Amino acid sequence: MTAPLSLGPVRPVPLSAINPVAQLAAIGLLLPVLLVSGDLLTPLVVLAAELCLIPAAGLTRPRVLFARTWPLLLGAAGVAWVNVLFGDADAGGWPSALALAVRVLALALPGVLLVASTDPVRLADALTLHWRVSTRFAYGALAALRLVPLLAAEWQTIRLARRARGLEPGRNPVAHVRLFAGTAFALLVAAIRRGTRLASAMDGRGFDSGIPRSNARGSTLRRRDAVFVAGAAAVAVLAVGSSVAMGTWSAVFS
Amino acid sequence: MRLAGWGFRYASRLAWAARDVDLHLEPGERVLLTGPSGAGKSTLLHVLAGLLGPDEGEQTGVVTVDGVAPRQARFRSGIVFQDPDAQLVMTRAGDDVAFGLENAGVPRELIWPAVDAALAQVGFPYGPDRPTGALSGGQKQRLVLAGALAPRPGLLLLDEPTAQLDPAGSALVREAVARAVAGRDTTLVVVDHDAGSWLPLVDRVVELRADGGTVEHGAGWAPAPLRMPVRSPRAAGELLLTAEDAGFTHRGTDLPALLPSDVAVPAGRTLAVTGPNGAGKSTLALLLAGLRGPTTGQITAGRRLTAGLRRAERPPHRWPADELVRRIGTVFQHPEHQFLTGRVRDELALGPLRSGSGDDDARRRAEELMERLGLAALADANPFTLSGGQQRRLSVATALATRPAVLVLDEPTFGQDRHTWAELVALLAEQQDADRALVLVTHDAAVVAALADDTLALRPASEPVPA
Lengths: 254, 467
Fold this sequence. Notes:
- The structure holds 2 protein chains of 2 kinds.
- Chain A has helices spanning 20-36, 41-52, 62-86, 94-117, 120-130, 135-164, 173-204, 223-246.
- Chain A is mostly helical.
- Helices cover 30% and strands 21% of the residues of chain B.
């Protein structure tokens, strides 16, 4: 009844060659640097390094890149704007607002890169094999993720079914809210039903039966993964180092 | 597999879901389980698969698989349910088949040969890298079957495996099951609403009776023929709805969901829309029902429908909802999508109230419909707690409550047993005698034979990849 939506495997891009846990480790290295730094130069160096990876994540077409990053750009611009409007003028005005926006971008962009380059199945494999994340959690989440597009289709159907019963909000904002709440409730009921059926199907296939689970695909950590993490560490050192050398370093919590 | 004096009662229910069941199966035997809905067929399969235990309810008698309790024999049985989308876990075909093997802790070097064997066994036409989201319903269900077969279970349980598929998809699944059990090393238990199609494949037919106990049917058993309604075809009346070149393409996709189609819906006639999954049957139903606007062509309403509308020149999808329900009624495939209130009585009064009937009028209409459709005893019940057959009758009744001239129904006989099927078809036949036009979207050839005056067979925009 509704648009064909599906969660498919992610098309491999050059960055997919890096194991997802190595990508997460790299993010883990850069995160504290970005959270602590209060100047403009530090996040700018990190952001520059991240921008270099965009082609490797397959985001070469401007339209695709924009589709993936516009909420992020909007968020960064919003943060900067609010800071200029309501921030203390002594606290730095425009330069500090700009630093904040760059930090937001540098913090969020790795997430975009990870999602663009990582197949959810490979991520679950890597997390369970290398970091001993519980298989119950990782593969349960994976199965639930498959249901999301189906629920989007179901949302549309429920909305149309309501119009077929004579329910339409028209111009009344209160009616809009009530209709939305009603549709959301119907969707919740549908989601629970489908989730229950999925859980019993997984149970029927012996999921979480107490036997140690094997893995059909495996997940290997190679030299290039170590190089990638070392690269991230180097970027972190370079960012802080250049900022200190330029005399602009200021920690947020000092 | 052995059951002796077996019964089961869900923890939340007073009535027994099944009782006094005696059944003994030799390895390699193939059995079809029949019986009215509510006789406990599905419960029995859940128990055999080890999915229902003491935590879920109370059990009597003995049930063993390979001499042990079903829960201990978990990896010796495989089960397939009706909705393939609620059974696939992974994004690629091969990974999904491997899922059960991984759970059983099978070493990696043994997994892939087993996956390839299972895919070949069910005749899956694509490679293991095929994204699962891009498969048709029949192929998805084949993949689910391969996943159940990969750990080489001694017992294969099928719970309505073809209920959600079109005839071509159902045939694919039956063919795959036939291949899988050909070697006689798998015992098979099937529950399916379409009992007749499984007869060539099974050795025995066992009926679970609604009041407990079992009946073994002899060779040559066939399901009782469906009760067909008596109808007198009428001449086509006034044209109520016309579709000219009406087609639909979802935003962001290139492939049309419905190719431009011409349809005429005259009063007093029943039109059946048929065709394989993906041909756009449901989409056409939404267009005719005034719930979506076509992206090409147009839908026009006849004078009898537009009478009294403030802006009669507008197409149905631009009509206000309260005007729409008095003219075109729609029944969706899943009744729960349409229920809006907590009581059957309120559910029936809602449409008339929304479309401007007075309170007394709406109540009277609700009582009248409950009486006619045998729902009076359930007036205060919550619609979500009704049985499948009752829900279906209620959803048709809610559409009739506003006395629309056109009734659009999407798969109205879906999931009905023979008894509720006959009731529903009789109800629909009556509507046509009331000079209503009916549009039925359906896979069910019997309902077409029983009701349709005209048939429109839709074809998909692109032929599906050969199976």
